[in-house]
Amino acid sequence: MDRDIFIQEYEETDENQNLNQIKLGWLSGEPSITRVLKEKKIGEEVIAVEIEHFNHPCKLILCDDVEDEKCCDGCGRSISTSFYYCVECNYILHKRCAELPRKTRHWAFKETFTLKPYTWFQCYFCCFHCSGLSYEKDAVVSLCCISCFVIPDSLTTKGHRHWVFFDHRFTFKCNICDDGHQKKGAFVCRLKECDHFTLDYTRLTLPNTAWCKNDEHPLVLTYRDDIHPHLDQCVCDICEESRDPNERFYYCGICDYAAHFLCVLSKYPFMKLGLTYEYEFHEHPLTLGKKDYYHDYLKCSVCDKYCKEVFLECTQPGCKYVIDWECRLRIWRSKGI
């Protein structure tokens, strides 16, 4: 789902979502590209085809051919259009992610934000767990994923015919966090006829397509359930719990398969597998993995329960240390980290 973002407009198209299609009319500042090594003129436009980027030691080359499924090391989203890649490493960036400013301001805050790399962080806006580049507010540790950071304060979006405006007074329970805390701020339609239609950052930045192991086809983000008007109750085909027909969900029209967006994506859709972590409670480096058929019965070394979804596994040969990601978060929070 490509998103074209203008100074006052945010428009969704039908393609796969990535930041390569964002037009950042309001965002400016110190560039992330530290050096342009080679340029190419196409018509009246001069394009950087080889660059150096602050977050990678090797040169990056521009490419338009997407041959297989790749994820951006900046935003964690899938690659579908122009990107920069490293010929020596597995590092890859959407063209637009590479062009984001390294230091800039945000319309909701007074402080300057700095773009920094993180192996893991939880976005201040959408609360998804992410890895990659994050905007950090100076003087205060407040990390924002770049998908959320570039959204303007008023926009139009597919699924609603009117403009919505950010309202910092709006409070609601976070769908991602397990602590039941109230989030502040959402995009609200001010027209009475829309009965206070609201969208939070979580729903606003959902990928337009997603995959689920229970269906061989891509699932398409659907904005309301007008597909099953004959049913008394809409049900999620993953958790088998009821679904709100007015809530966004993922759907396969071929298989008539419908599911909550969180059941499809989980809380960790934008964490890159295979990243190495230095974990202060274990002597060896750990690598990030995700539960699959091979890891179905992998047990956490800390709580002795089966890993739920995402876990860290020791890279040292002979060491079988594994810690479930949720278990790791509990330890961190208990230590005040």
Automatic annotation (TrEMBL):
<dbReference type="InterPro" id="IPR046349">
    <property type="entry name" value="C1-like_sf"/>
</dbReference>
<dbReference type="InterPro" id="IPR004146">
    <property type="entry name" value="DC1"/>
</dbReference>
<keyword id="KW-0677">Repeat</keyword>
<protein>
    <recommendedName>
        <fullName>DC1 domain-containing protein</fullName>
    </recommendedName>
</protein>
<feature type="domain" description="DC1">
    <location>
        <begin position="55"/>
        <end position="98"/>
    </location>
</feature>
<dbReference type="InterPro" id="IPR053192">
    <property type="entry name" value="Vacuole_Formation_Reg"/>
</dbReference>
<feature type="domain" description="DC1">
    <location>
        <begin position="215"/>
        <end position="264"/>
    </location>
</feature>
<dbReference type="Pfam" id="PF03107">
    <property type="entry name" value="C1_2"/>
</dbReference>
